[in-house]
What does this fold into?
Amino acid sequence: MFRQMTRMSGTMGVVLSVMVLLICTGNLRAAEEAKTFKVAAVQAVSRLGDVEWNRGHLAGLVRRAAKNGAKVIVLPETSVTGYMKIDLEKTWQVGGRRTTKGVEGVDPSAVAETVPGESTRFFAKLAGELKVYLTVPLLEVDRRSGNYYNTVVSISPDMTYCGYYRKLNPWPFAERAWATKGDLGHVFVDTPYGRMGLLICFDINFEPPALKKLGVDHLLYPIAWVEDEGSTWFEKQLPAIAKKNNLNIIGANWTVPAGYKAKWHGYGQSRIIDRTGKILAKVKDDVAEEIVYAELPIASGGSGPRDLASGGMDLTLPTQEGGSLLRSKAEQRDGSPAHQPSLSAAPKRLPPVGGER
It folds into this structure.
């Protein structure tokens, strides 16, 4: 009986070993055969200054995108804090800086956040839970300088900061009263899907050539666009920028609530464009929240696939009092100088290229 059981155990062990080998081989083959990955551009409404509501609302949309298989998810410009009131009659205002005529200013001091801060920690946990790359666009305050920035932070699936960008070209109409020009240069992060870069809205008129020189494959592009009625910018100019600069663009634009009769144009029209200028996907309705998806090719060669994000900054840790800059994991542990192996900064600015919005 004992010998029989031993023989059976041995046989079962061989069978289990073969099954495990087949499963592992199958998974490896599937990984090797993967040539594309799914991205999502989230077209969403935000409430000016209602950060708690915005966080919860955006988190629901992010969960939906991840459930549908998106591995990279882009949110609209400053959507965590709110960009402007939806009638364009209110914007942020700092100190005595003047707003555009006819636009009322609102003090952002109660809602602006440091990086890292409450919102970056909130979305870092979400990115870690869902195992996605996620952009976090917000109104940032640097407590040391007192400056306010239009900022986007990208977070990796391991909950670390892997991109930190301050808008280089604040749009005068909405931002002249609060936004300081970005001082972090151009940023990219190498991931298993290729090299990803960050720009914000109005930057698109000036900065894509710099990203082309850096070998960026995929542009994560938060937007809060305002445009003339009948403009072809999203249909023609943006695809032309993608083609000229060899960029896949995941463009997530703001919108207005369903049923709202806006007296301005430029909301909606979120889309995903490949590096040949082809529009792969776009929203069906500009006056509505929607998530658009597309499959993009995994970049190979010099710009990927590599993942340096694990060397980035841990956003789950508390911010030091008065500090807005991130520290590396090594520094957080032993106080050694910060290093940013997942980031690269180009020269601060290139000469302006392109038109005006």
Notes: The radius of gyration is 22 Å. The chain has seven helices and 15 strands.
